[in-house]
């Protein structure tokens, strides 16, 4: 009663002071507005904190895939997935699904680090007990000695969305970014804004093929054709090879070991020859050692390793590329078919498009 009387006294006193009354009204309005905004974002659920079997994910409306892909995984719609960077993003999940008889999502992250890719893979394994097919596109950061230190990029990685119970972190939705994405989702559901990308993560992020111009593509590859500075003195010795540190490969090994019955395909994507190391150089030796170690992991885990990162008729043809890392959609279509052919033990193509680095073990299974 004493406390109530004190409060009444303060209100009565404030009533006689317009400035204090204004501040109290403003504070109450701000608190009410903040609560309303938070409830709106929580109700729209732009990042799919409540997504699961029976509750579909929100449309993909954020530019940062790291925020949007966890709900694709949690949705239960997909039993297979592609992991990697933009060098693997043109693989169409629907085409892969028809080829492999599975329900695919493409979870390739723009400039995704090995650590980020592994977080997505672990999240998938937490929601799909026995995936049908896992495909990993392996770029050179997987071979980096600093992959355990260079875990993130300038793009925000929301680790809380990768937790088992993301609703416990719902307070993190209280941000201008979440409000923006929630607004886009609401507009999409009203039919006023299209999905940014397809619900299975697929996007043709390169320009339409009708706009392809070979001259700019050649200028891009020429600029990249300058050999990199030497990273040491000459080719690697056996001792140098053994001393190379590639910590991300252990993460890959752990994930592949966890799903012994899953069809697992590892691939080095087909980048243009201008960004491949000069044969006989130290960089070429380092890359060869990385491929050798990945081949060992593939043999040990019952995976297929397919190497497209070669000097082939495909990678030496400028007209197949928009820039040194990104091939055209027709190459992506051929890549999808090649993955199945190689996984089934078919013959390697005459134009050298790929090699299967653990062919002997595949033949014995």
Summarize the structure.
The chain has 365 residues and is of the alpha/beta class. It has twelve helices and six strands. Strand 1, helix 4 and strand 2 form a beta-alpha-beta unit.
Strand line-up across the major sheet:
2-1-3-4-5-6
> What pattern of helices and strands is seen along the backbone?
HHHEHEHEHHHHEHEHEH
Number of separate strands? 6
> What is the tally of helical segments?
12
List the helices and strands and how they pair.
Layout: H1 2-15, H2 18-44, H3 65-74, E1 80-83, H4 93-100, E2 104-106, H5 114-127, E3 133-137, H6 176-189, H7 214-224, H8 238-243, H9 248-257, E4 263-268, H10 282-301, E5 304-307, H11 329-343, E6 355-356, H12 359-364
Summary tags:
single chain, 365 residues, alpha/beta, six-stranded mixed sheet
Can you describe this structure?
There is one protein chain. The chain has 12 helices and 6 strands. Helix 4 runs parallel beside helix 11 (329-343), helix 5 packs parallel to helix 9 (248-257) and helix 9 (248-257) runs parallel beside helix 10. The chain has 365 residues and is α/β, with parallel strands linked by helices. The longest helix is centred in the N-terminal third of the chain and has 27 residues, at 18-44. It has a 6-stranded mixed sheet, sandwiched between helices. The radius of gyration is 26 Å and the shape is elongated.
């Amino acid at each position: 009663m004493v406390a109530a009387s004190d409060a009444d006294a303060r209100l009565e006193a404030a009533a006689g002071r317009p400035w204090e009354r204004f501040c109290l009204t403003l504070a109450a309005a701000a608190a009410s507005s903040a609560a309303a905004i938070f409830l709106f974002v929580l109700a729209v659920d732009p990042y799919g904190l409540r997504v699961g079997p029976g509750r579909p994910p929100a449309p993909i409306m954020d530019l940062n895939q790291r925020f949007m892909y966890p709900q694709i995984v949690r949705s239960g719609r997909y039993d297979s997935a592609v992991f990697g960077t933009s060098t693997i993003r043109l693989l169409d999940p629907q085409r892969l699904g028809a080829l492999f008889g599975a329900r695919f999502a493409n979870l390739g992250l723009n400039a995704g680090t090995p650590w980020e890719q592994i977080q997505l893979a672990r999240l998938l394994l937490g929601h799909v007990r026995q995936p049908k097919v896992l495909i990993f596109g392996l770029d050179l950061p997987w071979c980096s000695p600093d992959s355990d230190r260079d875990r993130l990029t300038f793009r925000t990685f929301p680790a809380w969305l990768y937790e088992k119970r993301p609703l416990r972190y719902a307070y993190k939705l209280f941000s201008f970014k979440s409000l923006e994405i929630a607004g886009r989702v609401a507009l999409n559901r009203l039919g006023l804004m299209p999905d940014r990308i397809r619900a299975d993560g697929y996007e043709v992020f390169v320009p339409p093929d009708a706009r392809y111009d070979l001259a700019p593509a050649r200028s891009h590859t020429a600029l990249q054709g300058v050999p990199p500075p030497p990273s040491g003195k000459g080719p690697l010795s056996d001792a140098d090879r053994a001393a190379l540190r590639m910590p991300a490969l252990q993460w890959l090994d752990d994930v592949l070991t966890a799903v012994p019955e899953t069809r697992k395909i590892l691939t080095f994507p087909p980048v243009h020859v201008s960004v491949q190391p000069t044969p006989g150089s130290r960089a070429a030796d380092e890359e060869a050692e990385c491929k050798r170690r990945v081949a060992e992991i593939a043999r040990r885990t019952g995976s297929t390793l397919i190497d497209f990162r070669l000097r082939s008729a495909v990678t030496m043809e400028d007209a197949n590329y928009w820039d040194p890392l990104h091939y055209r959609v027709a190459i992506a279509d051929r890549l999808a078919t090649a993955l199945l052919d190689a996984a089934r033990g078919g013959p390697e193509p005459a134009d050298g498009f790929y090699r299967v680095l653990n062919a002997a073990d595949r033949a014995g299974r």
